[in-house]
DNA sequence: TAGATTGTTAATCGATTAACAATC
DNA sequence: TAGATTGTTAATCGATTAACAATC
């Protein structure tokens, strides 16, 4: 295992979930072996890139043959830590929080929605997708009780920092931030920002000048 | 203007919306002038990076002074094509489509939700956020009528390609794809993939090995 | 064995960082 | 003027692509 010796690029890590999801599809199609060539064709990624990405974690393929789908799937799942069965919480039951609470792909990847938080008294106590909505003030207690590691911020911008602070105090380790604002947290907390207006804005950029980039992501 | 002579990196373009949103915040705070130093501090981006990004589109700053917030805001808005008042459509009234239809930031950036599409007869004719839900079969007509340029795919994976095909035929120019599947479209159509499970999976990767990357995005 | 395909090293390409002259 | 800060060029760093030896 090279994970600890060599620094893996962020770009590589972001491609792993794509490989994973495609391999799952292949498994469902009863494909047992796949070459980097064919996997690349499916994803719009060069075979060299795929081999390089995978090789940075170990030797998962068989020369002259390809990759065993089932085996590679297990390996990538392990690399991504999907076996950890992370518990996560959603903060904010607006339209976006509601949608995320009902998003099926998370649980199929092994993530478990353990709690939802809001401040609106009419929402506290509700069950969304079978998960209870708690008051923000009870976060510390619930996070401990339910062993929650990841917090998803889906509150209005104005409250994002306040919620982030609460999450940190409660002992969360990772934050997925949908609020379009930079949040400040200690260095030990990992944050991923997901500002949805970035996607639409960059689309606008390309459409406005009629120059589609050569390669999609 | 250098836009046409020099190829701007995708990384730069993805940062423009971040600059834009921060400048808007500054304007609301009545800040008139900002230095790359201070803007960088707010965003967690180096000042050199910001100056480089902006300089690739023109000379927007004043040496020894900084950038005029109002002026820079207008310039970045123009670069991003936000003045084009793009009409967009959402396809799929599931939880995600519903949330996107109600997302306020799009309209505040000048994007106009002009139509929603689904196939469920109980949803056709409904108005969400004041916008009518049409049947998928009427797409070509409605897209033409309402001059829609952008389609947001929020349907289950299994139907993503079929919807993409319909969008292309209808004359759409850009697609924002939330379905976790690669869609195939002609080269002239610009596609942005937004697979929400990538965010959670990469969080999982870092949490599983306790090595937060030095820099957040 | 011959053909295929990986894993790895080297070459290229692109993006970020550093340095500094220009100038407000 | 002196101090500050941009815009730009050069240096560094990192990621992708190409090439090919290893080997199934």
TrEMBL record, chains A, B:
Record text on subunit structure and interactions: Homodimer.
This protein's record includes keyword Repressor: yes
Chain ranges of the CoA-binding domain: 81-182
Function as written in the Swiss-Prot or TrEMBL entry: Modulates transcription in response to changes in cellular NADH/NAD(+) redox state.
Gene designation per UniProt: rex
Residue ranges the UniProt entry marks as DNA-binding: 18-57
Binding site for NAD(+): 92-97
InterPro entries recorded: CoA-bd (IPR003781), NAD(P)-bd_dom_sf (IPR036291), Rex_actinobacterial-type (IPR058236), Rex_DNA-bd_C_dom (IPR009718), Tscrpt_rep_Rex (IPR022876), WH-like_DNA-bd_sf (IPR036388), WH_DNA-bd_sf (IPR036390)
Protein name: Redox-sensing transcriptional repressor Rex
SMART domains for the chain: CoA_binding
Principal location class: cytoplasm
Organism of provenance: Propionispora vibrioides
Localization in the cell: Cytoplasm
């Amino acid at each position: 295992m090279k994970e600890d010796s060599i620094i893996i690029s962020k770009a590589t890590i972001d491609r792993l979930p794509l490989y994973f999801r495609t391999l799952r599809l292949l498994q469902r199609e009863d494909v047992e072996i796949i070459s980097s060539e064919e996997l690349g064709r499916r994803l719009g990624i060069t075979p060299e890139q795929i081999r390089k990405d995978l090789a940075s974690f170990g030797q998962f393929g068989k020369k002259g043959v390809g990759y065993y789908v089932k085996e590679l799937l297990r390996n990538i799942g392990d690399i991504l830590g999907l076996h950890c069965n992370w518990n996560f919480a959603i903060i904010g039951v607006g339209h976006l929080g509601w949608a995320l609470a009902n998003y099926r792909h998370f649980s199929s990847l092994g993530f478990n929605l353990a709690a939802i938080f809001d401040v609106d008294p009419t929402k506290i106590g509700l069950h969304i997708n079978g998960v209870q909505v708690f008051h923000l003030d009870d976060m510390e207690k619930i996070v401990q009780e339910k062993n929650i590691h990841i917090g998803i911020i889906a509150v209005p911008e104005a409250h994002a920092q306040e919620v982030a602070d609460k999450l940190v105090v409660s002992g969360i380790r990772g934050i997925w931030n949908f609020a379009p604002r930079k949040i400040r947290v200690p260095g030990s907390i990992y944050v991923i920002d997901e500002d949805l207006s970035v996607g639409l804005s960059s689309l606008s950029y390309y459409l406005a000048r009629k120059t589609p980039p050569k390669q999609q992501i």
